[in-house]
Amino acid sequence: MEKMSRVTTALGSSAISGRTMFCHLDAPANAISVCRDATQVVVAGRNIFKIYALEEEQFVEKLNLRVGRKPSLNFSCADVMWHQMEENLLATAATNGAVVTWNLGKPSRNKQDQLFTEHKRTVNKVCFHPTEVYMLLSGSQDGFMKCFDLRKKESVSTFSGQSESVRDVQFSMKDYFTFAASFENGNVQLWDIRRPDRYERMFTAHTGPVFCCDWHPDDRGWLATGGRDKMVKVWDMTTTRAKEIYCVQTIASVARVKWRPEKKFHLATCSMMVDHNIYVWDVRRPFIPFATFEEHKDVTTGIVWRHQHDPHFLLSGSKDSTLYQHMFKDATRPVDKANPEGLCFGLFGDLAFAAKESLISSDANRKPYPGGDRRYPIFFFKKPDPTEQFAHVSSALSVFETDLDSNRMDWFVKTAQLYLLCGKPFAELCDHNAKVARELKRPQVSTTWTMLRIMFSDPANPTTPGLNHSLSKLGTLPLMNSFNMKEISSGMGTESRLERSKGESRQDNIHLEPGNSHISINNEENEETEGSEGQAEYMFGDAELDDDDLYSMEHDNQTEEQEYTLPQEAFQLRHEIMDNPSAPEHLQQDKADSPHVSGNEAEVTCLTPIESFSLISISQPLFSPHLPASFFCPIVREMLSYYAEQGDVQMAVSVLIVLGERIRKEIDDLTQEHWYMSYIDLLQRFELWNVSNEVIKLSTCSAITCLNQTSTTLHINCSNCKRPMNNKGWICDRCHQCASVCAVCHHVVKGLFVWCQGCNHGGHLEHIMNWLKSSAHCPAGCGHLCEYT
């Protein structure tokens, strides 16, 4: 306490002053450290080791510690530390594994004092004890920490973390014997320097390497850590287990963290890569920095507060070969540019809207009192320093909820599970998906699938019956501009009218010739079925025409002429049939006596025996109705964009996969990738892992197909010898037995394999599921009570 008071008194008698300034260095800096009285700073790097004086207006170089014609690797520094009690004592961590101390009080040019070469790899960190002059701690890439007594020629104790490399070591400011060490495997260990055999406490602080740690200068139990996971975490070490009390999410890996003097909740950080700025955070507001220093043009490698009791000056070194002194009043305040309005949709359609209270409150005209509540006298309130406070911006949040029943996502889950995206012909896929959408009461989606089948199906193939009765029967007819029928009755009997018997299959072929078209009928049986009183039915080509589809025929002495005109779109053109068998002789004989129809209509052929006959005329097609699939691609592209804009990426992605090459080239790769990623994200939110994996496999985007091939490592042990399997087959290369054998059917499992984590027995997914429906014991007979969840 006596030494601490002396420092405070010195600071009070000659307050630190200065401005934001910088100087150019000879080489990039790796680390910086400041002396106790805050008048000098040392800069160390691979090719620089200098001391600068901090004057009112500029940095002044005082001493270059790299001396000699050929400086050794001992001058190549990864870290540097200036003793806070002995002003002439420095320590550096060398890249060759050496720990070097420097005595600035030496009269010679070479200030090197002691050299410790016990570490086998690069030393990442050195740290002096805050109150013991001769105690120095180091942490190395070799995984060891060593404590040196500077009065001796070697280390007095070695600490092994039983882990990977040590990235940082820091003595506690309050506990004399305690120091913290951070490791590349994400762990932080607390050690007692009196017990080098085992750490006192260890906990996992980050997912990935922990690059830095720093004890709070005032609060005894607070330890801040930063790592590659872009997190800064504050831990309370006073409890039996380390408790995370604050967490700050940054935008890049955290390389350095330093608590701000005299400010309990403020700390400064810099990044290891990508981000060049220095941030000061208030850990109570972890989502936006309290202040930002943006002067450096390259990665910041070292930060230190100029004095341990002055929060207004920050020193920093960078790879851009500059040394900066930052005045806190010159820092950028990101909160001043923050938008107090926000809008967000919830998963089930709820809408949250945040805006300034002054915009939406009823008493917007009332100005708040800056001093606080006026129910109390104004002198009760201490006016805060505005430079040390976050800008007071408060937003009112309004949440607009929707009816859960009307916005349930059950249809999404059922659609994802029931849709077929491959494995069947295109028409069947469309029909199946249309049926699924129709059953889920989504008529627009169902109609879209039906239209896609009509657009892209091959017209030469018959369509699936039953889905659309009229279209399926008219789909393969030749195109006709008009279809007129006349039926003449002359009092003859109806016993010999043309009829198709039930259960018989008759094939009639229509042959159109230019200029004079005839209808020729070829009956497979070459005879008429007599004795039927029903109406006549005809077979045109491959498609059957029912009476209610095209026209109705009445045989009760109808003399009135009726004309039927069909829309052209209802017919698809059939290729011309050249090999047409000749008609029966009695029809050819009647051909000469057939009446002719006036105008451009063609000759008609008698369809029935002489007692009763019908007249049918067919005119020529005006144009070819065959439309290539590419004709519909712009329409389909617009349709997919519409569904995606409406939020139904499920439909957009499903159509993309089913249509495949028909439409893929019409949509740019970035748009497809965005749709795929959105759909996969939704599937994974609903835990539809199998559907998600199927979509990834069927995707044609290279960025999507690799999603299930990265960051997936599965270590397999043989179920017989319990040793790791190195080969990729099903046979263990050690015991030469099949490793994945189903406990139910005793065959090798080559697909989905499920196993019990209690007894390690398993097998085919379906077999195990069926077994556990009737029995709770393991099918392998080991007696374990297995449970399928």
From TrEMBL:
SUPFAM superfamilies: WD40 repeat-like
Enzyme Commission number, as recorded: 2.3.2.27
Name of the featured protein: GATOR2 complex protein WDR24
Matches recorded under PANTHER family: GATOR COMPLEX PROTEIN WDR24
Gene name per UniProt: wdr24
Record region (Disordered): 491-533
Keyword Transferase among UniProt keywords: yes
Organism: Cottoperca gobio (Frogmouth)
One GO BP: autophagy
Record SMART domains: WD40
Catalytic activity of the protein: S-ubiquitinyl-[E2 ubiquitin-conjugating enzyme]-L-cysteine + [acceptor protein]-L-lysine = [E2 ubiquitin-conjugating enzyme]-L-cysteine + N(6)-ubiquitinyl-[acceptor protein]-L-lysine
